[in-house]
Automatic annotation (TrEMBL):
Its EC number is 2.7.7.9. UTP--glucose-1-phosphate uridylyltransferase catalyzing the conversion of glucose-1-phosphate into UDP-glucose, a crucial precursor for the production of glycogen. Transmembrane segments: none annotated. This is UTP--glucose-1-phosphate uridylyltransferase. GO terms for molecular function: UTP:glucose-1-phosphate uridylyltransferase activity. Homooctamer. It comes from Ciona savignyi (Pacific transparent sea squirt). UTP binds at K131, Q194, G223, D254, K399. Belongs to the UDPGP type 1 family. SUPFAM superfamilies: Nucleotide-diphospho-sugar transferases.
Length: 512
């Protein structure tokens, strides 16, 4: 490249240049920290007087999170240092359930608190307001089903398991209005809010918000890793420990499979004689091709750790997605000893990786930085943390209308607020359903496409793309693919029986 050797940069020159770039970047980071400190002080001073101390404390916590983000250089893990979890750290649910219950159900339930993560909105499915208030089955919402589940257990075993909702500023008002309808239920319901942090302009590295009263778009809830700190500062954790409760079961409110499991609770309350008491349990389940982006458990620096796809170097993403190498993934059903949460949080030892959710952009096109943490990442801080490989039935999330179609169908039966796969289905796997975005992704459009939900008891795979509608009493079996070409429409007639068929844009029905 350099014909004259004298023109080629020397190794010393290259090193000097690299060093000067690093020094410049460090100066920029120092300036960003100073500027942020000044802007956050200004922002805190705009709060109402009675809330000012609380808001300033929240902004201090955000500043600490942002400093950790700025100090981060390079990948958060060294790929070659990853090891599979040590033998015995991923326990089989079958083995745990074989032990039976060594205490009465009432005693076990007296040790438990249920926390549901309720900070999300239903915007991805075209709804306004909290996602937990979306109707999923027989006119019942996620929240209705959750209350039913716990109430049925409380009544059956004369127990008093409380339900706690971690809301965000996006969901708190609407949720509290709805909670009034459960006043006569046999469940005590509590709420606390997760933090409200300012979104940061990606170019200036300064807050979008100029005042604490600025529109909601300038703020965000920083992921469910907030649960540890916010549960503690709400005072609820201390209250429950004083009542003699020991464990909390944390899960996403849109996971219809995340019900109280007495076998896991029994293992925590009455650990086997040959094992140490557990402080943290993460429910994992076998990965399928539909779960390639889910976080997995690894051993790293002699600790059990959650590895998320965002932490994986680009050149190893395909390897991470491999079902053969990483066989399990995190369901985000987490069981924890409450005293351990209190000890780790108050001592400042609850460390979690900072996730930059860099897909965020405001309505006016401004790119923003949104820093988050994930609750499962807390696993590395707890003593004797383990994973339990649970049946797939404990992971039934509703993230898209394709998931909603499954839980609305005759594949599932509703029993005391729990979704149970129909005994009429001959094999326990869940069908793979893909619905086209344009016509099916929003709930109001999705519901308008079905006169009623098809019989899917023997369905393996359904793909629907384009302008397609379904009449009444339609049966789908095996693999069914329905594709309407652009500008064309396919109406599946009432009473249609499709088994291993491809229905194409010219309305021909072909054997698959």
């Amino acid at each position: 490249m350099f014909s004259d050797p004298s023109l080629a940069p020397s190794r010393g020159t290259t090193m000097q240049r690299t060093q000067s770039i690093m020094e410049f970047q460090q100066l920029m980071k120092n300036d960003a920290k100073s500027a942020l400190r000044y802007e956050l002080d200004k922002l805190g001073n705009t709060a109402e007087k009675e809330q000012r101390d609380v808001i300033k404390k929240d902004l201090e916590n955000f500043e600490a999170l942002f400093k950790r983000f700025l100090l981060k250089s390079g990948p958060s893990i060294i790929w070659n240092n990853i090891k599979p979890p040590p033998e015995g750290y991923i326990k089989s649910y079958k083995e745990i359930s074989k032990m039976g219950l060594t205490s009465p159900e009432k005693h076990l339930l007296s040790k438990l608190v249920v926390v549901k993560l309720n900070g999300g909105l239903g915007t991805s499915m075209g709804c306004t307001g909290p996602k937990s208030l979306i109707s999923v089955r027989s006119g019942l919402t996620f929240l209705d089903l959750t209350v039913q589940q716990i109430e049925s257990l409380n009544k059956k075993h004369e127990a008093d398991v409380p339900l706690v909702l971690m809301n965000s500023f996006n969901t708190d008002d609407d949720t509290n209005m709805i909670l009034r309808k459960y006043a006569s239920c046999h469940v005590k319901i509590h709420t606390f809010n997760q933090n409200r942090y300012p979104r940061i302009n990606k170019e200036s590295l300064l807050p979008i918000a100029q005042s604490c009263n600025d529109p909601l778009e300038a703020w965000y809830p920083p992921g469910h890793g907030d649960v540890y700190e916010c549960f503690l500062k709400s005072g609820l954790l201390e209250k429950f420990v004083k009542e003699g409760r020991e464990f909390v079961f944390v899960s996403n409110i849109d996971n219809l499979g995340a019900t109280i499991d007495l076998h896991i609770l029994n293992m925590l309350v009455n650990p086997p004689k040959d094992s140490k008491p557990c402080d943290f349990v993460m429910e994992v389940t076998d990965k399928t091709r539909a779960d390639v982006k889910g976080g997995t458990l690894i051993e790293y620096e002699n600790k059990l750790r959650l590895l998320e796809i965002a932490q994986v170097p680009k050149e190893h993403v395909d390897e991470f997605k491999s079902v053969s190498k990483f066989k399990i993934f995190n369901t985000n059903n987490l069981w924890m000893r409450m005293q351990s949460i209190a000890d780790l949080t108050t001592s400042g030892k609850m460390e979690m990786e900072v996730i930059d959710n860099n897909m965020q952009r405001l309505g006016n096109g401004t790119n923003v930085i949104q820093l988050e943490t994930a609750s499962g990442a807390g696993i590395k801080n707890f003593h004797n943390a383990i994973g339990i490989n649970v049946p797939r039935s404990r992971f039934l999330p509703v993230k898209k209308t394709s998931d909603l179609l499954l839980v609305m169908s005759n594949l599932y039966e509703l029993k005391n607020g729990s979704m149970v796969m129909s005994s009429k289905r001959q094999f326990p796997t869940t069908p793979l359903v893909k619905l086209g975005d344009e016509h099916f992704s929003k709930i109001h459009k999705f519901l308008g496409r079905f006169a009623d939900i098809p019989d899917m008891l023997e369905l393996d795979h359904l793909t629907v793309s384009g302008d397609v509608t379904f009449g009444k009493d339609v049966t789908l079996k095996g693999t069914v693919i329905i594709i309407a070409n652009h500008g064309e429409r396919i109406d599946i007639p009432s009473g249609a029986f499709l088994e291993n068929k491809i229905v194409s844009g010219n309305l021909r029905i072909l054997d698959h």
